[in-house]
User: What shape does this take?
Amino acid sequence: MSLLELDDVEVRYGSVRATHGISLRVEEAETVALVGSNGAGKSSTLKAIMGMAPVARGGVRLDGVPLNGLRPSQVVRRGVGYSPEGRRVFPMLSVLDNLRTGAFTLPRARFTARLEQVYAYFPRLKERPGQLAGSLSGGEQQMLAIARALMSCPRLFLLDEPSLGLAPVIVQRIGELITEIQRSEGLAVILAEQNALWAMRLAQRTAVIDLGRIQLEGPSEQLRHNEDVRRAYLGT
Amino acid sequence: MMTTRVLAMSASAGVSRARWAWLAAGAVALLVWPLFVNEPFFLHIATLALLYTIGAASLHLVLRIGHLSLGHAAFLGLGGYTSALLTTALSWPFAAAFIASGLVPAVVALIVGPIVLRLRGVYFVLITFTFGEVVRLVFTEWQSLTGGADGIFRIPPPHALLASKRAYYYFALAMAVACVGVVARILASQTGRFIDAIREGERLAQSSGVPILRFKVMVFAIACGLVGLQGSLLAHFITFVAPGAYAFNESLNLLVMNVIGGMGSLTGPLVGAVFLTALPEFLRGWVELQRFLYGVVLIIVMLFVPGGLVELGRRTIALVREPEGRDA
Assistant: This one.
């Protein structure tokens, strides 16, 4: 049994189908890149796992237990962390209060210890707990967005477009952090990215999503060197 | 113990000693002035202002979760009628009726909250407006219970000792401090940060695991319970309740107190409540122009100080401290 199983998941907004049947397995402590162009259905897939998108068909299971019909707060409680697209933070809240909100499902007794763990990954945040999140730089905001989602101690971490709109040097730093966090926490990560080559370097396995379906799936190393894949999906 | 915790929290928020000195001076002034000015008219206005700080502060809670309610007076009325009926028809002691006048609106809010709080923006505004009108119609039409358009008269004072204006002023002061204290405590706590998170990014709060609807319903119920308590205190102060007192313009009044005072912090609705209770009295001399002047003051504040009177005060202080008016 895999940690996460998606079976033929169709997300439908009224008459618009965002995904046409996504099937995907994610194992414990594994990083999977979900790559594809804008509008391919990456975000909808992540939202379907979170219970934040209307699933018309198919099922999502965590540890074999169906997640369908659960509210996002219940999905978080079961061990799924989610950092949505667009570097989302609470701009008028301090760094620390952003992290507190992320720790909503965490028992209070564990908060301080978890905060120290997360600060260890992101020392920049530790230096400015009182600063308003909206006044951080773009890279710092993305780090805070990741840190916020990590506060709940997830086993499965969904990251939507963490590289979007960031300078290459920051993107590289965030990649290193994702790897470091994944290793030390034994997390499973789904990395949804348009920046396919970057994501594939971080992930052991890659699923290429296009037109609402998974078109190709396999070890990242193999797909990266496959000429057809490079031409069709990676734009090189 | 609570005070020390509040103190610690405020200190971490950078509140200076000077500010505490000002608060202490204000508290002393509120306690002492009636000993020198035993003028029923002023005591009456001051008591009303104190009671309205409860309603305005409770509506501030609703605004903080990102919802603009135009039906808050309905809950004020539910509290007022509950207390009036229980003390007159059933001869309950005031204390029991007072508790019920908080519980009844809170329970009603727990029932309607899960439905209406799913709505956002203008839809929530419209549904709360409609709810307010429905409640007012019930007050008017259910004559056997509510006395219809005439309402209920001769509501007894909470206690024989509270029959005088001055005594009721102190009673209202204590109650206002307690109720506003509850709001302040919530906003200063961890819950307050979650409230702010929900307002700033509902979807993001949701993906952090915050059960937003449950949170909103809880805050809404507390707010409606508090304004119900104001309803009770108000009913026993003016000794009657009637449907007209809980109409749309009363909901609007509570909202305008928040807008005029400033919606950024709890100080806003407190200042707004005092200002808007006093303003019509000072405009009494121009009865025919009262509504008009009220409107003019509103427009001026909204146009030139969108942050409300609190912002106006801040600007004035900044100007006094730095007379050149240099921009930072």
Q: What stands out?
A: The first strand of chain A starts at residue 4 and ends at 13. The two ends of chain A are 36 Å apart (CA to CA).
